[in-house]
Amino acid sequence: MDAEREVLDVLARNAREDIDDIAAQTGLDADAVADAIDALEAKSVVHGYQAVVDWDRVDEGKIRAVVEINVELDRETGYEQVADRIAKFPAVDALHLVSGDYDFAVEVLGENMQDVSEFISEQVAPMPEVTQTVTHYIMETYKDGGIRFEDGDDDDRLSVSP
Amino acid sequence: MRLSDRARTLPESGIRKFFELAEARDDVISLGVGEPDFSAPWTARTAAIDSLERGKTSYTANRGMAALRERIADHHERYDQSYEPESEVLVTTGASEAVDLAFRALVDPGDTVAVHEPTYISYGPGIELAGGEQLTVPTRAADDFALTRESLEAAGAAEADLLVLCYPNNPTGATMTDEELAEVAAFCRDEDLRVVADEIYAALTYGTDHASIATQPGMRERTVVVNGFSKAYAMTGLRLGYALGPAEAIDAMNRIHQYTMLSAPTTPQYAAIEALDRCDDEVAEMVEEYNRRRRLVVSRFNEMGLDTFEPGGAFYAFPECGGDDEAFAEELLEAEGVAVVPGSVFGEGGEGHLRVSYATSMRELKAATDRIAAFVDGR
């Protein structure tokens, strides 16, 4: 495996690993790790570093919705142009072009349900290309970013065994 | 009740004391665990659940389900091992049963069994229960705990009838290359030793492929290979292992097994079939994660001045702590709440070392090694 891929595998699991620990885990030297991170960022492989948050456990947390959006394109307007306009809204957390019954799957983050529905009805639905939206509010998140949301540690192994 | 002499004289495992000390506290980070921190792959677990729902709760064939034995034989092609599923594979209740059966089938009262140490703690008692006598062959830190012809000769192993070989090794994490095994194989052929090769950690090797003594010239016919699902597939509690060997040895082991165990448990056999069919990728992910932890732990111990050779397999590092390893481990537990197992528990040659299991999360490993570094500094 090349150095960038090894570093990427570590960061994808835990973006808070410091350079020395990544070096220890991969067997690379610290400079090589730093170079790999710079290269991954320069090539836009790594776009940022975020915490995986269970908003249900935060006072005044946030609500998340998955919104299906159908659009109609014309000669001047392609998916790229529509995506660019939708992505500019800060409430849009993730935006994907998908195969199947609709065109875009949009993850929207808002303070509450009213906040999200106002955003969809007042900002997204009126866009000339948008023909239909279907909003699914997320009721409960069980796993996100590859991490299962559950309480603490359930290690029930014997503390010392042969 | 009057107990047999055999039971009365069987010693308590040295690991027991540390278990009790560690269990007495609730703030312990344990690097003393000899099993994976992962759970068995979910698809394997669902196969077990599904088999129960379909009412598959009867005995299987003594030797294990035919479909499982076929897959085990196929699986071992990757180690260049070739065995007939009908006659040369025996599914057992954990690799431990396979080791016990091998001793009972191969050892006569008074036979000498050579065991390299430090090693897993069950061989000595197993040999004793089979009526044999253990001859200890110490392996050396200078050889990275590989077994050498020189150590075998120095210990007088030429007189032995059987050799127990455990690589990748618990507790040292040592592995042996084909070249190193060739030397041991030549000794076994020259001195007419048979071999029980416990290869339970074969899937957990880092950077190289597992090498088996059974693939050395003239060794297949004198070797029983033991393996299982506990370590590679994180299925310790499901208790499923197996033995591979020449038909006459497997047949003899099966004759004992049919009276003492009848058959290995049925539910885990369904899980094992699924594990062999579909879980290579998950095993590869676990191996990658162990490898990252291995490198971190080894580099941290070397940084804190406890010399640690680079272990090629299993999930243990074996740092040198110098002097009295039991006192070191007890004081470390007392002062910093970190549990490790003193190397001397695993026999001669383990003194002055600690067995450090990295089958625990990266976060705990970092916290534990920070605490150990503080302990070493203050000493």
From TrEMBL, chain A:
Signal peptide: none annotated. SMART domains: HTH_ASNC. Pfam families: AsnC_trans_reg (PF01037). InterPro entries: Dimeric_a/b-barrel, HTH-Siroheme_Decarb, Tscrpt_reg_AsnC-like, Tscrpt_reg_AsnC/Lrp_C, WH-like_DNA-bd_sf, WH_DNA-bd_sf. Keywords: DNA-binding. Residues 69-141 form the Transcription regulator AsnC/Lrp ligand binding domain. This is DNA-binding transcriptional regulator, Lrp family. The lineage of its organism: Archaea, Methanobacteriati, Methanobacteriota, Stenosarchaea group, Halobacteria.
TrEMBL record, chain B:
The keyword Transferase applies. Its cofactor is pyridoxal 5'-phosphate. Keywords: Aminotransferase, Pyridoxal phosphate, Transferase. It is an enzyme of class 2 (transferase). Belongs to the class-I pyridoxal-phosphate-dependent aminotransferase family. Homodimer. This is Aminotransferase. It comes from Halorubrum xinjiangense.
